[in-house]
Amino acid sequence: MVEVTTWIDILKGCVYSLYILCFIVALVRFKRYHKTPFRFYPIILLMETTKEILAKSIVNIFNYNAFLYNFTNTILFIYMLYLFYYYINIPAFKRSVFIFILVFGLGTIANLFTENAIEYPLVFSYFLGGMLVIISVILYYIQLLNDDKVILVKHDLLLWVGTGQLLFYTGYIPIKLFRLSHAESVNEAPTLKIVQLILLILMYVCFLIGLLWTRKTRD
To answer: Is the pTM of this model over 0.85?
Structure first.
């Protein structure tokens, strides 16, 4: 019988492989979306990959790496919200996402005054960003369902990226809340780590499908 720690190591290997694979595919398929706001997407993927590679080494040097996650998470949330703002056409939804961007920015600034962002995670900013992205994905789904070209959505890169984000944050936010409420516990249940890794795999598989299926588009 395979031990839990072995499963965790296997899943970690899958996650790291998907990080690198998605980045490579994003570069190979770059011409398909290079005239759209997705032209920055390879940079985001590289940022996430580099973060995971460096995180453990940074902890060994400084005994903390929260600043790395705080920085990359903030950039990621702003970029994702910008993508939805750009591609959502329904006026009321577009205004809502614009407000989301402002609220996230102000919420993150406020969080900087309540937490030491160098040593500790910006928890409020993370939860806020995750929830706003989830709502934005749902708004985009509604727009697609009201679109005459809904049959072609499988080629929509934002649909796949958004679906990946929706799956991950819907599953991971409760895990993060549980961890915070049991912060005094020395040992974390391995099951939570396994679920987190599976959510990451599902998210990056969605990214990969989107990159492979997306058609050449213009701004």
So the answer is: yes
pLDDT digits (tens, 9 = 90+) for 114-167: 999 999 999 999 999 999 999 999 999 999 998 776 656 778 999 999 999 999
Alpha carbons 44 and 75: distance in angstroms, whole number? 8
Cα dihedral across residues 176, 181, 68, 122: positive or negative: positive
b (16+ CB within 10 A) / e for 5-26: eeeeeebeebbeebbebbbebb
- How many residues are listed for the chain in this entry? 219
Distances (CA, A) of 10 to 55, 86, 197, 199: 19, 38, 10, 14
Burial of 182 (0-12, 13-18, 19+ CB in 10 A): exposed
Decide: 180 and 115 in contact? Cβ < 8 Å.
no
Residue 181, CB half-sphere, CA atoms under 13 Å: how many? 6
- 90: number of CA atoms within 13 Å, CB side? 15
List the end-to-end C-alpha distance of the chain, in Å, as a whole number. 52
The predicted-structure confidence for 34-83, as pLDDT tens digits, reads as follows 999 999 999 999 999 999 889 888 988 888 899 999 999 999 999 999 99
Instruction: Taking each helix axis as running N to C, give the angle between helix 157-181 and helix 190-213, from 0 to 180 degrees, rounded to the nearest 10.
Output: 170
CA-CA distance, 170 to 131, in Å (whole number)?
8
